[in-house]
Structures are given as structure tokens and as C-alpha cells.
Amino acid sequence: MAKHIQTIVKANLSATVKTGGCGKCQTSCQSACKTSCTVGNQVCVK
Amino acid sequence: MLDLLYFEKYPLKKNVHSYRQGDLSIAHDVNSGSLHVLDEGTYNVLKAIEELQELSGSISIAGITQVLRQTGKTELGEELTEILEELEELRKEGTLFTAEAEGIQPTYPAKPIVKAICLHVAHDCNLRCEYCFAGTGAFGGSRTMMDLETGKKGIDFVLESSGHRNHCEVDFFGGEPLLNFRLVKDLVEYGRKAGAERGKTIKFTLTTNGVLLNDKIQEFLEQEDISVVLSLDGRPEVHDRMRPYADGRGSYAKVTPLIKQFATQRPESSPYALGTYYYVRGTYTHFNLDFDQDVLHMADLGIKQISVEPVVAGPKDAYAFQEGDLDKIREAYDRLGEELILRRGQGRDFNFFHFNVALDQGPCMVKRLSGCGAGHEYVAISPEGDLYPCHQFVGQETYKLGSLYDETPLQLKEELVKEFRSAHVYAKPSCRECWARFACSGGCHAANVSFTQNLTEVYTLGCELQKKRLEVALYVKIKELMSGACQGDGPFDTL
Ligand code: SF4
Ligand code: SF4
What is the predicted ipTM? Predict the structure, then answer.
């Protein structure tokens, strides 16, 4: 058990370079006038 | 133990964002997406390494100890070895100090695949919102309505130009799209039929100010599974100041009951805008830097899916943010994060869009690099049938991509497509160095252009707000997971 660091989420984003890109997810618009779907606030639909 | 020589070639600040939020010290490993909570000593060590890198000093135990001493931090003695050992564990495991995947660039087919369109069905509006980028609905042109022929051509365009993609998106936008409700109805019917003929589905959305949202229209939106984005700025005085009718009267009293009614009909709406959803969205300005109160006002109305976002304004606008506003805005996000955690604990849940981060099921790297896709995956269509990179560029002649009435409407202006495609996050010098790069994707082209006249230079105030939102979002997520762990819901392994 680590004493100084507590890991909360283990992720592997870089791996999706190979698996991603299907394009099924919604278009993301960051602007205030619209849905404002910033990419970081979306989910993968796969 | 962690070999400190590693940091001679590993820029820490852009790859691991360590910061304090609430009662936590957090490290976000940017390239893997992992999250860690640090104790005081570990946080100070990471900050000391950052500082040594900045001063181009040699990174050694002696160097770290000296920085700790100079900055009045507790010196660590033996503990430093322990910390470096734990850090090395995580590095080996691939959840800290991970390297950036090299040589990745978004790649696109020669011909753009446009899968989403924004149909400006009405360049007219029944409100005169102060901050409207559309020049209160008319986009700098005259007040016009799209006709059926143009609308159908628009649908045909997206079905055709989406190539092998089976999922298309059509957003009804304006001005106020409900001023042309007849067309919306006709186009949904047409779109369903035309889509089915080609084996494609169209997902419809509509963005409205709510003024015309009567029972008949609400019923239609329900029946047809249309996702809806509704505009409400929050407290009555805040809303009315920015969102009046043409005669100056405020619109709060009219729209609030309608929006509330609509929102409560969709209790299952996804916080991540999946399926058929609704969102109530507002804009905050210099006049309501305590916009957390507006979010809570909406939550108190029973609205569960809320997004309130910073206005993008020119320096001359009275409502534009001013020097000194940034700290107040940051504090508002801090307060909002704490309140959200508190209410969730009490079962009085609501979602604030920018605090949603689906860490484990977030979008793939390819999506994160390409961002909004304006000008090549997404286009906006004016009432006249002219094509633009996105709704914010409509009416700007230099950005016209073509017209539905051209002989070959699918042939978008090549230089522009190229320009937008190449304005991805890695093309922007500031973004390459920014820890938020994979969540932000390089900001909004329209905002960047309006502030810097350049697609690859960023709107810096927007960046500050983006980063703050993300810090609080990660914090909220961590708190949620930590309280889950207390109830035995761990571990949070998403590898
Ligand atoms: S350029 Fe900005 S406003 Fe246009 S689609 Fe992209 S994020 Fe949205
Ligand atoms: S636009 Fe700003 S916040 Fe976003 S990645 Fe670029 S520098 Fe970072």
C-alpha cells in the first residue's frame, strides 16, 4: 500500500490511438451559443 | 527509485498537471489520463522538479532539497527516498510520467466527410439578446427564413457527404428555429425518409430560446426524439438583463415555466448528451461573475442538465470580462464544484456539463486531436443555402465554403477545408505545451479567429477558463470515486 500517493484512476488514453477514430460520436462544439460539447466532456459511444 | 535523470528529457509541467483543489493535491497524468492524489511531501517534490526544470537546474536530490528549503517547505530527509520509490512504481506501471504518443496527427480522407450540419432555418429572432453573436438573429444580413427546397437540399447534402458514415447529425439553429417550425417539421419527416432510403440515421437537435415552446411543439419534440438545447441564463435579473424582447421587456417570466416543463419531461436525459437529451444552457458575463448562483437557481427549479458558459465578447462590450474578473470566475467554479459534491451526497443531484468527465469512457485520441471538425466534418448552412465552416462563421464572406445551389455542392472550397483541418491541437504552439490539450482540443476556431485573427493562435482568456473548469471537473470526479471507495465500490482500474 502506497504511503504517499493514492491512485484514483488508472487509464491508458494513448492506447486509443490504435483503436479509435470510428467517428460515431457526436460532433463537439465548444462555443457558448451551442451544445458546447467540449471533447473532454463527451463519452465514446463504441 | 525514480532516476531523476529521466527529467532531463521529460518536460513535467505539460505532461503531469499537479495542482491543489479543495483539500486535495492532485496529479493528472496527461498522456495516460490517470489521476492520483498526493500527500503534501509528494506534491512539493513534483513542484520542485517543475521549478528546477524551469530554471534549467540539474535535477538531483540535492537540487530538490534546496528548492524545498528556499520555498520554506518541510524538508523530507528519508521520506524523499520513499516518495521517489513510489513515483517510480507508478512510472513503471504506466500511470505517471507517461510519454506522449509520438507522431500522431489527425489524418483525413482526401474528400471531406461531413457528418453534421447546422441548419439556420430562421435568421430572425423574437428576442434581442445583448451578447448574440448572430447580431440578434440576422447574422449581419437581413431577417430571412430558410425555404423547404433549401432545407431538403441541406439534408441531401449531409446524407451524401457523410459517405460511409451511417450516423448523421442535423441541428436546427437560428436565430430562433421555432419561428420556422413548419420547416422543422417538414424536414424531420423528409430526413427520416431520405435517411432510411440510404440506410442512415439522422440525429436531430434543436437549439431554442424557449419563447415558442408551447404544448404542441413540446409534444412534437418528444414524439420525434429530438434533442433540445434550451437557453436560460439563471436568476431572473441576470436573465432579463441580457435576454430581453425587442421592446426591452425581459423574457424570464415567459420562458422559465416552459423550459422547466420541458426539462422535467425528460428525467432520463443523459449528462453526456447521448440519445435523446435536453440541456438548459446559459451564458455568463461580466455582470454575473457569481454565475454559480445562476446554476444553482436552475438546479432549484428542478432542471438537472445544466451548462453555463463564459461569453465571448469584444473588448468594447460592456458585458465583456475585464481585468480582475478571472479570480472571481475561478472562485465561482470552486464554489460550484463544492456545492455539486454536497448536493450529490444529499441526493439532490444535478449535472453541470463542464464538470462531466468520463475518464474511463472518454473519447479516443483521434477525436481529442481533431476537436469540433468545423469546416470539414461539420458545416453550417445559411437560409440562402450558403455553406460555412460552422454557425459562428455564417455570413462571413471570406469563410464561405460553397453553396447548396452550386453545380457541385459537395465540392467544398479546398483551401478552406485544408486550413481548418490543419488547425488541430498540435498545430498550435500554445496547445502543444498545454496540459489541457487532450480535453480541450485547441479551443474554438471562431473564438481564436475573432481574438487573434489566426486559426492557430489561441484566445488566452478562454484557455484560462478551460483549464479551471477541467481542474474542478477532475476534482469532482475524484471526490465521487473516493466516496464510492468508502462504500466498497473500488477499485477504479480502467487499464
Ligand atoms: S469553431 Fe467554435 S463555434 Fe464553431 S463548431 Fe468549432 S467550437 Fe463550435
Ligand atoms: S486552446 Fe488553450 S486551453 Fe486549450 S489546449 Fe490550447 S492552450 Fe490549452
Answer: 0.89
Other C-beta atoms lying within 10 Å of the C-beta of residue B381: 30
The number of the ligand 1 atom at minimal distance from the alpha carbon of A30 is 7
Distance from C-alpha of B455 to C-alpha of B395, rounded to nearest angstrom: 18
For residues B451 and B218, give the distance between their C-alpha atoms in angstroms, rounded to a whole number. Answer: 38
For B279, the enclosing helix (H) or strand (E) is: strand B278-284
pLDDT at residue number B489? 41
- Alpha carbon distance B400, A38 (integer Å): 24
Round to whole Å and give the CA distance between B135 and B129.
Answer: 9
Q: What length is written for chain B?
A: 495
B242 lines ligand 1 (CB under 6 A): no
Pocket test residue of A26, A27, A33, A34 for ligand 1, highest count of atoms within 8 A of CB: A34
Q: How far apart are the first and last CA of chain B?
A: 24
Cell for B146? 430558410
3-state helix, strand, coil in chain A (%, to 5): 20, 15, 65
Nearest to B35 among A8, A31, A33 (CB): A8
Query: Which residue did the predictor score with more confidence, B178 or A28?
Result: B178
Q: Which of B286, B401, B418, B305 is nearest to B352 (CA)?
A: B305
* Helices within B21-107 (DSSP H only): 40-54, 61-70, 78-93
Pick from A44, A33, A27, A16: nearest CA to B101: A16
Would you tell me which residues 1-46 of chain A have a C-beta closer than 8 angstroms to some C-beta of chain B? 2-14, 16-17, 19-45
**Torsion sign across C-alpha atoms A20, A25, A27, A28:** negative
pLDDT of residue B293: 98
Position of cell 444580413? B141
CA distances to B152, B200, B411, B415 from B158, rounded to whole Å, are 10, 11, 13, 20
Instruction: Please state whether the predicted TM-score (pTM) of the whole model is above 0.90.
Output: yes
Residue type, A40: G
pLDDT band at A1 (very low <50, low <70, confident <90, very high): low
Listed as ranges, residues in chain B with pLDDT below 50 are: 486-495
